[in-house]
Amino acid sequence: MRDPYSLLGVKRNAEPDEIKAAWRAKAKTVHPDQNQDDPSATSRFAEIGQAYEVLKDPERRKRYDRAAEMHQTIMQQRNAAREAAERAKAAKANAEKVMEELAKTNAQNAKPQAQGQAQARGQSQAQAQSQAHPQNQSGPAGETPEDMIERIFGAAAADQAKSHTGGSAQTNGDSAETAKADVSGSERPPLPALAIDLIASIVRRFRGTTPAPEKAPDISVEATVTLEDLLKLNAVTLKMADDREVRLVLEKGMTEGHVARLKGQGLKLAGMKSGDLLASIKVSRDSRFRVEGFDLHTTLSISLEDAVLGGDASVETPEGNRNISIPAWSGSDQTVRLNGLGLHDDAGGRGDLVVELRVVLWEKPNEKVTDLMRHMRHGLYV
Asked: Which of the 8 DSSP states describes residue 192?
């Protein structure tokens, strides 16, 4: 189905009354009875009805909005990954072009060097040095590394190279002075180290830092567990929408509403880093206990005489039955707390079992109790 907001012509923050009015107007316009000559009127009318069914239900509308937002995020991340791949491809092509130019420069430099060395035989050391290194050239016809970059990539790239290398021109000048002072007669390298550094810096400049893989969106699911699972810290299996099964090991500190993050178990997309899985713990209904934080709550019915006079009673706990003492004059708003019989908390301990007292009468009326209550109401004591 297409975007329901676009079908009804309303904004994404439209109120329910506005959505209803837009649906009525659209339905009246495209109704098949009003468009008997249009064979697509029935399908368009049904499509508008489906859009209204989605947007009029708050829960279905929320689910659609979340899915649309996730789809938009995925498309943005895919575009970013595609652009990064294109940049890497362009950087590789630039690097190959630079290496090709380096090879040409190396071959052109080798010929004059060989000729200079041949002419230098039998002459003085100073004349030989002057002929071998006329102006510390690094390319054909005295071409400097900056000139070569400008020839390959243009003047803007050459300016970037100069600024990126932090004053390479000065360094080249220092190298020239060093070459003049060197009287040892050592052979000049085929390619100056400064030129290689400059080319490498330009390659890095064009290539940039390789971005880390984009992360796919996280997925939120509801993990339904039993009270026994939490008490025994069992492992539960979560069934994913893509038919995957993810194993969640329950740990101390997990209770109703706790969100467990499973790294890399979320949405998986090609060329992207897998998202995380956010599992929200939901404790299934138990006939004996109710979960509140790390405490467990249970209800204990007591008789009227025990409520007035006090007494002993047996209560069911996660670790078997326990005897408790009921204080005298205990009403239905009172509780008895048994320490350390609840869920495992995140501090290494356990919550409590809270016994909620409920005063109940006998199944059949008792005449003596009835008379006693009547006398108490009217102030007649026997």
From this structure: -
